[in-house]
Amino acid sequence: MQTSRETGTGVDVRVSNIGGIEETAVSLTPGVNVLVGRNATNRTSFLQSLMAVAGSERATLKGDSEEGRVEADLDGETFTRVLTRRGDGVDFSGDPIVDDAEVADLFAFLLEDNEARRAVATQGDLRELVMRPVDTEAINDRIDELVAERDRIDDEIENAEAAGRRIPDLEERRVELLDEIEAKREALEEKQAEIDDADADVDESREERDELEDALDDLNDRRAELDRIASRLENERSSLSSVRSEREDVAATLEELESVSEERADYLDEQVSSLRDRKRELDSTITQLQSLIQFNEEMLEGEHTEVLQLLADDEGGDGSNAVTDALLAGAESAAGRCWTCGSEVSMEEIEETLDTLRELAREKRQERSSVTTELEEVQSERNEIETRVERREDLEARLEELGEEIETREANVERLTESREEAADAVEDLEETVEELEAGRHSAVLDLHREANELQFELNDLQDDLEDIESEIASLEAEVDRKSELTEKRESIADELAELRTRIERLEAEAVESFNEHMETVLDVLDYGNVSRVWIERATEQVREGRRKVERTAFRLHVIRTGADGTAYEDTVEHLSESEREVIGLVFGLAGYLVHEVYEECPFMLLDSLEAIDSSRIAALVDYFHEYAPYIAVALLPEDAQALDDDYRRVTEI
């Protein structure tokens, strides 16, 4: 496996006032680093220090300190993390390796209380854990944006194709106009030649001829103006009809659009706010419970020596060893002094209380998952309502714009109608004038001049038509030229849409495939006897989302055992041994580590609390994990560490 972060000569870590550590400096080498020691030797505290400098906030500050600090020299850079006590909480600052350690917390820091690791034993939502780091809401928003952009481009491509289909007809009409213009010019030249010949032969009144020519020029101008007005009037009426039709469509759409209840919207807003508050409360409660559980587990391991010493001092004399021995004995009858109330309690009672806290934490995590699902459903419905409100507002605004446009165009139609009538009256008057002039002098020359004027008028019309055709062809060709650019852009959008739509599905499939592949190999390596197969099935199930039922993916964990007679049968997680459950949880963490490529940002994989697994299997498991992480730090008891490869670095003093 290739990682983006080079594993150079190693990493030097300096820690002060983290967990049970007062001051220490430890060097780690690339590969496996084994933290060897008995309980209460600050191995877990050192793992927390690595988590802190990597970016996690799951580390604890030393009980009697106001500030703790971790520094790590890695690949020529120095990373720092400072923990500062603020009232009842702890603030984290500094320059960690990773800005957001959520994925590393889930899949790289596999300590005992790791959520992904525990999800197997507690039958948690495996799919939710794998997909938690993925911002599905942002993906869906981007999909909506791209779909709208694609539809717009499709319309433009369709327009470009329609433009391409129109060009041949226009080109044909252009050729026809050129031919007609050429013929009209030839006719005009012939007519002008006739006029010149007639002028040479006929001695006519120059004054009468000029008057007729002026009248004909005026008549041509007025006719041209009348045609222009008529054309504008026709266009305006066509536009008015289109606007009225659009207004009817908009009004019909607005009427069909489901109205939005303000009371429902306000209720959903309150629900979103309430669910967000509840989720924050649950996050805070879970964090507090995890810290409480972790502290008590560390107390049981004897890591907080200053508290044990204080208890010993309260008992009087130099009895610290006796108290520590009692706390660490592990026997159900062993008794010690409670480090919270000072009363004497049995180890069994402490363990029972811890189990209760763990169960409460599990319930809170389940409730958080339920609240998260409900929040997503409420937000989805609220988004739908907002979309309808925005759509209604857009339609109402468009309806108002169309109404104003109709009023403007109706006024234009009325004005152009009056102008056309005035121009028609002027043309009629000029035609009468020309007729009177022609009636007064039926000269062949005057007829020729009138015919020449008519030819010139027709030629001007043809040239105007040609100019319009050529302008339209140029516009259509420019639109056609954009088709390749639009097509390329659409393909890019389609590729991104396909990638976004399959990203969630791909991550789910990769997580399942990765888990199943590694689980099969690990089971074969560890040889768990009658456990022949453990695998995750990626299935779909119907859930209610608002008022709709939608399909959602679920991960179902299957355990296949082999009976004494060789018959395979499916069993449940509850019937697995603690060792088997721990191994499955660790492999699930590894699958998430690889699918989300945690190694690209965070170089550490941390393992702790492996005592439920026998030493030979721990060694095989560490060897297997070694292949996938730049740095592995594993906390082991001395007897378990003996089974690991001698080439692995041992850290015996922290």
Automatic annotation (TrEMBL):
It comes from the Archaea. Residues 188-211 are annotated as: Disordered. The keyword Coiled coil applies. Residues 347-517 form a coiled coil. InterPro entries: P-loop_NTPase (IPR027417). Residues 195-211 have a biased composition (Acidic residues). Keywords: Coiled coil. SUPFAM superfamilies: P-loop containing nucleoside triphosphate hydrolases (SSF52540). This is Chromosome segregation protein SMC. It comes from Halarchaeum nitratireducens.
